[in-house]
Amino acid sequence: MSNQCAETLTCLEGNCTCRAYEYHNGLSCQTRLSYGGSCSLEISNQCADTLSCLEGSCTCRADEFFNSGSCQQRRTYGQACSANIANQCIDTNVCLNSQCSCRDAYFYNGTDCQTRISYGGSCSLEISNHCADTLLCLEGSCTCRGDEQFNSGSCQQRRSLGQSCNPEIINQCANSLSCLGNTCICRTDQYHSGTSCQRRQSFGQSCSSGISNQCADSLSCLGNICTCRTDQYYNSSFCQRRQVLGQSCSPEVSNQCAISLSCLGNICTCRTDQYYSGSSCQRSSKHFFSVSDSANAMWCPMRSS
C-alpha cells in the first residue's frame, strides 16, 4: 500500500522509520549531524555513523580520532601517523616523524607510555627516557649529575665559590663548598685550592704564599712553611705572642721568649754573659756582676781598678 507512512518516513522491514542517514526529531526525519554539529542526548541517532553525542557536540569517542568522514581507532606507540591529523595517536603519545611516540613527560615501558620517574625514584638504564627531564638514571635512581643539585622540580648547576646560596637547599654549592652565611665558601678549617676546598695546613707543613688561608688559624706562610710570625711561638695548638723579659716560660717550649731572651729558671731573661739594653739582650766583652733592684736583675759592666 503506497504512502502508508507519514511524510519523510520510510517503510523498512514492516516499520515506518527514517532512512539510515537520518534521525527523527519528534516531528520528522532530519539528516544526521556531521562532526562538530550540536546535538542532544535525548534524541537517538542524531549524530552521523561512528559519531557520538558528547557534551552537546557530535564527536568521536576518547579512543578514536576523526578522519575522512568517520571516527577511527586512535593509533598506539610505534604505529604510523600523520602530523596533519589531530588526535590520531592516543593521549600519552604524539606524532613524531610519522610515528606515534611517547610525549615528553612519558617513557615507553615495552607495553605503553608511562609517566617519567621523578627525583629519587627507581629507574633502569635499559629503559630510554625513564627519568623526568634534566634527571639521569644513576645507580638505579633518578638523580642529578654530580655538578648539579635538585631544586624546584629540576636539576640546576651547583653554585661556585663566592656565589649566593640557601642553606635549606641540599648540595646547592659545588664540590666541597659549604653554604655559610648564604654564600658558597670553604669551612673555617679549609682553604680553596682553586678547584676545591682542602684541609688547611698545620704547623711545619709546606704552603704557597699565593694561596689565601692555606695555613691553619694563627699560622702564617713564611718561606713556604706554615709557621708562626717572628714575634710569636707555637704552643702545640696555635701561635701566641712571645713572652717578654721577666715573664714565665717553659724550657720545653721552643722560641717562647722574645728574640734574644732565654728561658732560664722558668723566666724569660738574658744569659749570664749578657745584659738587657731595654729592648734586647746584648753581649759585653767586659766582666759583669749582678746588682738587684726592686724591679729586675740587671747586669752592669765591672769597672777596672
From TrEMBL:
It comes from the Eukaryota. Keywords: Amyloid, Prion. InterPro entries: Cys_repeat_1 (IPR006150). This is Prion-like-(Q/n-rich) domain-bearing protein 25. It comes from Plakobranchus ocellatus.
